[in-house]
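Colleagues,

For the teaching module next term, I've prepared a clean inverse folding example: a structure given as tokens, and then the sequence designed for it. I'd like students to try predicting residues themselves before seeing the answer, so please don't circulate the second half yet.
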């Protein structure tokens, strides 16, 4: 995404993929790059999907 100098863009990046596909590594690299560029970055995880799948799997 290109921006004019002095302009800021807020946004959210969501990474989806199978286990071991590099989501955490990529997210960490993106957050680091944003911080090094002087922007703020918040890295969060949502493990609720995995818990739900595990519970559903135990029922089968």
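(Answer key — instructors only)
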């Amino acid at each position: 995404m290109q921006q004019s100098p002095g302009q800021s863009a807020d946004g959210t990046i969501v990474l989806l993929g199978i286990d071991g596909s590099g989501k955490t590594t990529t997210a960490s690299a993106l957050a680091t790059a944003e911080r090094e560029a002087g922007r703020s970055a918040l890295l969060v995880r949502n493990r609720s999907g995995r818990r739900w799948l595990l519970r559903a799997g135990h029922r089968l």
